[in-house]
Amino acid sequence: MARRKKLYEGKAKVLYEGPEPGTLVQYFKDDATAFNAEKKDVIEGKGVLNNRLSEFFMTGLTQIGIPNHFLKRLNMREQLIRQVEIVPLEVIVRNFAAGTMAKRLGMEEGTALPRPIVEFSYKDDSLGDPLVPEEYIIAFGWASQQELDDIVSMALRVNDWMSGVMYGVGIKLIDFKIEIGRVWEGDFARLIVADEISPDSCRLWDMETGQKLDKDVFRRDLGNLRDAYTEVARRLGVMPTNV
Ligand code: C5P
C-alpha cells in the first residue's frame, strides 16, 4: 500500500499529505478524549460517524455560500480537504448556557441566552485553551480586527443555518465550536471554516426529552456515545451503512 506522509496527529484526527498541492487527507479516528485528554477511550465507529456528519454540515455550509475546507469524502474514515493556515482560536457560539459558561457564571444549563454569544479560546492544549477577549487576539496578532469581524459574522451565519437544520430534526443546538483557516491568495488571506463540525464539537439536546446527543455523553458518563451520534446521523438522514 502506498505510504502517505503524516503531517499531524491530533486527539481525534490525523492529517496526511493530499494528492494535490494545497490539499490534505483528514482521517477520523475512533478515539474520544475529554478534559484535555485526561479522560480517554476508543469508541468503535465514532470516526465513521463523524466523517459523515462533518461532510453533511460542511456541504450544507457550501450550499448556503459559507466557504469551508471540505472537498470530498474519500472513504468511510477519510475526506479530502483544503490545506489552510489555522487561526489559533476556537470560535464558540452559544445559544443556551451550558458547559464552561454555565459553570463560570453559575447559570443553570439550558437557560436561553438573550442572543447568540460568540467567544474565543486560544488554541493551546498545554494551557487548556483559555478563554481570551478580542483585545488579546488583536494585540497578540492572532487575527486582525477585520478578520475577527469576518469570523464573528461567519460564526453567526453557521449558527443560524445549523440551528435551523437541527430544529428540523427535533434537536436543540445548545452551542458549538468551529475553527477557521486562512487560504492565501497572493497577499490576501481568505477565511474558511476548517477542522470538523460533528457531535464532538457541538452540544445537541433532544427537544422533547432533553437527552444529550453529543460528546457530553462521554464526558459525563451518560450512556453510549455511539448510540447518541448514530441517532443524530439517523435523524439527519446520513446513516453510514457500516459503522
Ligand atoms: O466546554 P465549553 O462549554 O466551553 O464548550 C463549548 C462548545 O465548544 C461545546 O459544544 C464543546 O463541545 C465545544 N468545544 C470543542 N473543543 C474544545 C472546547 C469546546 O469542540 N476544545
Description of the molecule:
- With 243 residues, this protein is of the alpha+beta class.
- It has helices at 46-63, 99-105, 134-139, 145-168, 216-219, 225-236, and strands at residues 6-9, 13-17, 23-28, 31-34, 39-42, 70-73, 78-82, 85-86, 89-96, 112-122, 131-132, 171-185, 188-194, 202-206.
- Strands 8, 9, 10, 11, 12, 13 and 14 form a seven-stranded antiparallel beta sheet that branches.
- The longest helix is centred in the middle third of the chain and has 24 residues, at 145-168.
- It is globular.
- The two termini are 23 Å apart.
- The mean pLDDT is 97.
- The structure holds cytidine-5'-monophosphate.
- The site of cytidine-5'-monophosphate has 14 residues, from strand 9, helix 2, strand 12 and strand 14.
- It catalyses: 5-amino-1-(5-phospho-D-ribosyl)imidazole-4-carboxylate + L-aspartate + ATP = (2S)-2-[5-amino-1-(5-phospho-beta-D-ribosyl)imidazole-4-carboxamido]succinate + ADP + phosphate + 2 H(+).
- Belongs to the SAICAR synthetase family.
- Keywords: ATP-binding, Ligase, Nucleotide-binding, Purine biosynthesis.
- Its EC number is 6.3.2.6.
